[in-house]
Design a protein that fits this description.
- With 169 residues, the protein is of the alpha+beta class.
- It contains five helices and eight strands.
- The strands form two sheets. A four-stranded antiparallel beta sheet has the order 1-2-3-4. It has a four-stranded mixed beta sheet with strand order 5-6-8-7.
- Strand 5 and strand 6 form a beta hairpin.
- The protein is elongated and about 70 Å long.
Length: 169
Amino acid sequence: MRRTIIDTTNLELTEKVVSIKRVTKVVKGGRNMRFTALVVVGDSNGHVGVGLGKSTEIPEAIRKGKEDAAKHLITVALDENSSITHDFLGKFGAATVLLKKAPDGTGIIAGGPARTVCELAGIKNIRTKALGSTNKQNVVLATIEGLRQIKTPEEVAQKRGKSVAEIMA
């Protein structure tokens, strides 16, 4: 897995909470309630990240999730139509997300968790389909994993030792 450090100081990040779960732990004295918040952040310009925050209070869990997401930002390769450069399958756990390139004017055709990631990444035209598990956390992470592995035509051409024109033909 390739890691690139992205400077978040000059990025204007927006956040969206995908899910908040109440987790209960039964102990000798009763029940301990905690909350888990799954947060997606992005700048709508090719950068997106996902984070998980856990705390005894919901606002604190969301804050922690936002901080975690900002630490794990990825860069998404977009084409001239504000779509992805090629089709790809993102996998995480039992969840698989099919990401399909779409022409201009298509919009975002995606289910809830995948839609949030695509919107915050700045993708305007894409078709997605969640295959396998529909667990929100795994679908978000599968979408992120798929977007991380998408390559630009320039990267593919350089790797193969050809020109971009040969790759696109």
